[in-house]
Amino acid sequence: EAQVTQNPRYLITVTGKKLTVTCSQNMNHEYMSWYRQDPGLGLRQIYYSMNVEVTDKGDVPEGYKVSRKEKRNFPLILESPSPNQTSLYFCASSLTNLDTQYFGPGTRLTVL
Amino acid sequence: KQEVTQIPAALSVPEGENLVLNCSFTDSAIYNLQWFRQDPGKGLTSLLLIQSSQREQTSGRLNASLDKSSGRSTLYIAASQPGDSATYLCAVKSPSGTYKYIFGTGTRLKVLA
Fold this sequence. Notes:
The structure holds 2 protein chains of 2 kinds. Chain A is mainly β.
């Protein structure tokens, strides 16, 4: 089944404890992206990748890192999480720059 | 800087009504516009994608139009059903060279049986 998977789906952590949220797609998509969704603010793009080893900042990249070493994986790294990074995170991918995005199921992160 | 607005934020309609959801954007230089559906606690499902050169797209009871010059898109839902209840989001993509998307905050639709 063609899909975008994220792990974990739910995570509660404490301030400053490094964490990684994984994202994987099995559709051989070139483009991948991370978003966060907050009440009243909608989805905001954190980082995106247009190919292996090619990443760039979205609108809200502060406090996040990404890497794209393989086409299928695009992990989101929070080196030192803070409470303002408590949010619902989505990974998405598309085959080309013109195609629709396919979204993962989301990761709900709480930073205490 | 591109801004995307969706009005109203919430809408309740009786089953069977035809309805229109609105999406406005401030910069007409877009590459494409997508409409998504989001069910509570779930991810986003793509409904329709309109390229900048197109005026509309249709899928079943859904029709989306795009007027770049006025910075507007509408999503028309015919003969609404309770199963259409969800949040509807629009997203615009910046011109070629990037993979940047700007989302609206959504319209929460409730269709009453």
